[in-house]
Amino acid sequence: NAEYMGELLWIRRSRISCLVLSPVHFAILITMSAEFKALPQEEKDRLFNLVCEKVKELQLENVEVEYASFDTAMRFEQYFQIEGEVPQSEGQKLEDLKQYLATLNLEWCCRACLAYDAGDMAPRVDVIDVATGEKVPLFGASRDGKVLFIDFWATWCGPCQGPMQHNQEILLKKKEQWKNKATIVAVSVNDDKEEVKKWLTENESTELDHVWAEGGWNSACARSYGIQGVPTCWLVDKEGKLVKKGHPSEFDIEQMIDDLLASDGLFDASKVIIDSESEEEDDHDHSHGEGAAVVSDKPKWQDLDPSVRQSVMTEARALMETPVLKMNAQLSETYKKRFTMKGGQISTRTVRIDGRVPVDQQDAIREVAQKFINVASDIGIRAGYIVKPSVPTVGQTCSQCNSALTEEAVKYVCGMCMEGGTVCAACFGQIETTSHKDHAFFKLANPSQKIDDTLRFGPGNLSIHQHGTGCHHEESRDSQGRLIHHGVFCDGCRGPMVGVRYKCANCSDTDFCETCEAGNVHLDAETHNPSHVLFIVPSNLQIENMKPITFSA
Questions:
Q1: DSSP symbols for 27-46
Q2: 155-196 per-position pLDDT tens digit
Q3: How many C-beta atoms lie closer than 10 Å to residue 486's C-beta?
Q4: CB 26 within 8 A of CB 81
Q5: Residue 48, SS3?
Q6: Can you tell me the distance from the alpha carbon of 459 to that of 78, in angstroms, rounded to the nearest whole number?
């Protein structure tokens, strides 16, 4: 919906690297109750402490409590969450925690769930049948006694699109062999069922059993299954016992279901190998790019008097209002509290400066950084000065028809030819008949767009393949024959990327589809920086690897 999309675009533009960019955190930013947001910080801290004491009282060792706020020049946001997987034997403790949270009006922040292992019975929950709109059991009559591959996904999720198409292809192939024995259930965690219905009218997914988890991320279904991100899949036998859970890439769906059916559809621990899941540390403070905290004998930022912090932030924000910094850098203050039984309670308050500014503007970012360096020892400086990459030369005349190219004229510059690759709009329409066939181009749509040292991606930083010549993904196309760019979705309409891909050469991860580019969505300042250059990837090419241009901190 519009509110969700607004949050997503803001997070993209703000470059707050310390905020985990996962759908779970997007959802929590939005669903946090207005009552909680309005509370004074002292009351939020009090509630946090009460929850920590309850977790400690219940001895829930696998539960983590976390509160964080992000204060930037653009806005103030925060999240409060309780997460973790609790052993089945401690199920009553988890219920006691949830009941206690309800007394504090904090039930919305609990993402903790029961842990499930191979052989455990999958949770029995109700879902909404997308076709009929009726509430039905996930293990209802139509699916009872079948081997089920349950795929949790969302229409806006780029990495979900490829697996969903693969699911359709498998069911078409195994339709007769698996009839009344096995099927694939697609459980959408979208906020709105209508989004799923719309997606189904635009995509071929007729063989899947489509249901909707009413309530999205906060639905009983998503919570019961411990869905922390999509895509996530569960394979269960015909009795509803878990065989395996994980990312779609971890499954050979066809082979695993065939193996189960060969065992009469039942889980057999001696025949099915369950991969152990690696535990990844949930660290929200990974640094990106080069640079390190400044070391000195000054106090840490969090130990300073609040009035000092406020004064420095006010001065720094004023400096960040200069156009070059406002468009290319981000200043953020993060306040975070985390509690676990093992580590106890940790509280931190930090300041970061992130971004990339042209080398001739480095003094501007240094002035901002100096404000903090003068008073504290632990300021995270992650703002880089861009090193000029190897970029193609923009010609003054069209290399095909020799017509003059004015500064205002729309022009296309070949990203794979360093010289002699500038063409006018008319000749670009016939580019397939020239030596630039199958090449990727930069598009300069207005005088503010330049091919210079502000580019994040240049021709030497993109690994571009023609299908059949080393592509990691097999070529796949939609019903109109357009190439599907796996794992990529449009930042304008949020749909999957098909056909010609327009990738921003300045942003770290921004793409537009043919329709949005034609509608000039990328030139809307609310969506994207109009001065950024788009890199046009033809429909028969796939970007497999994108390495940012190296810059020094």
A1: HHHHHS-HHHHTS-HHHHHH
A2: 888 788 888 988 999 999 999 999 999 999 999 999 899 999
A3: 21
A4: no
A5: helix
A6: 39
